[in-house]
Amino acid sequence: MLHPHQLKVPMMSTLNENIDSPKPPFPGKNRQALAEDSHIAAFFDLDKTILATASAMALSSPLVHAGVMSRWDSLRATIVQLPYLFTGADDDRMRSMMHALGELTRGWDPQYVEKIVNSVTSSSIAPLCYRQALALIDHHRLLGHHVVIASASPMEIVRPIAHLLSIPDALSTIVGRGQDGLVDGTITHFNHGAGKAEACRKLAQERGWDLSQSYAYTDSVSDLPMLELVGHPQAVNPDRSLATIAREREWPIHTFTQTVRIRSRKRTRMTLAMIPLALVGGIGIGYWARRSIPSK
After folding, report:
1. pLDDT reported for residue 65
2. Of 9, 143, 178, 185, which has the fewest CB atoms closer than 10 Å, so is most exposed?
3. Which pLDDT does position 273 carry in this prediction?
4. How many CA atoms lie within 13 A of 105 on its CB side?
């Protein structure tokens, strides 16, 4: 029987590692493990944890091109994000980002924005995924764990990225809407800090997941409440404050460095599904051709 503590997550993940690791530690017992570990979740922060940058920055150019935001708004968003990208985000910086997010998204048509993001994830997001993060996500899936994205970005950005990664559950910031259906500049739920942890807790309670045996991955000390919520906290490319806490508490620390263009998993599944049909079709055509050619 495989127990959750047997999940071997390397203390450090670097360029020198085999990028396809970690491998599932239960050869021949996949079905049993999937059934036993279905009460365990793995919560992944998005920016600088799965992605090598901030998702909002990666998508700013397509949003400008689509007329969703101006170049000045794009520059403002970049200025707000720069301290987070280089030094991490404490509570004060995240509050500033929340207010900036409200002003930036004011007047957005949520459905149109999500449609735009959906159309550009393969070009703007797919090349920016950390290869080690994708390997960990697949590893948790093989163990039967429920993978969840937990991000401070708006749902209209997070949901298309989750779809790209074939992750069905995503927790995100929720923006307010006016009577006309457009974003009104308010934030009804800021998925950050204690708010993100509470969203994870509520989802786990609804699904019957055991948080004491679950995992959380993030780069920022602002997500400390989420890390403290689970039994297996993991620091990924941690900012200085989180790195200090992780060392003090002997939490695993991962260094993700290599990005890879993610291939469409839907296309891959469709290709695999077509192989048996192609084989059957090939056999049938061969049989028909042999019957149709007159014998000499």
Report:
1. 83
2. 178
3. 42
4. 32
How do beta strands 253-254 and 183-189 pair? unpaired
At position 46, the amino acid (one-letter code) is L
Contacts of 90 (CB under 8 A, 6+ apart): 221, 222, 241
pLDDT value, residue 89:
56
CA distance 187 to 226: 20
The candidate with the shortest Cα–Cα distance to 219, out of 249, 248, 187, 245, is 245
Residue 9, pLDDT score: 46
Catalytic residues, which ones?
45, 47
Q: CB of 183 within 8 A of CB of 196?
A: no
DSSP letter for 123, please.
I
φ and ψ at residue 271, rounded to 5 degrees: -65, -45
Give the pLDDT of residue 113.
Answer: 87
Contact 200, 43 (CB under 8 A): yes
pLDDT along the chain (296 residues), means of 10: 43 33 36 60 96 82 78 61 54 62 76 90 92 96 96 92 96 92 89 95 97 97 96 96 97 95 54 41 42 44
Q: Which of 149, 131, 114, 120 is nearest to 41 (CA)?
A: 149
Q: Distance between CA atoms of 100 and 112, rounded to whole angstroms? A: 21
Token pair of 1, please? 């029987």
| Confidence (pTM) | 0.72
CA distance 149 to 1: 28
Tell whether omega for the bond before 22 is within 30 degrees of 0, i.e. cis.
Answer: yes
Which two three-digit tokens encode residue 267? 């296309």
Query: Which residues, listed in sequence order, are joined to residue 149 by a DSSP beta bridge?
Result: 44, 170
Are 180 and 229 in contact by the 8 Å Cβ rule? The answer is no
Query: Residues 277, 278, 280, 285: is their CA dihedral positive or negative?
Result: positive
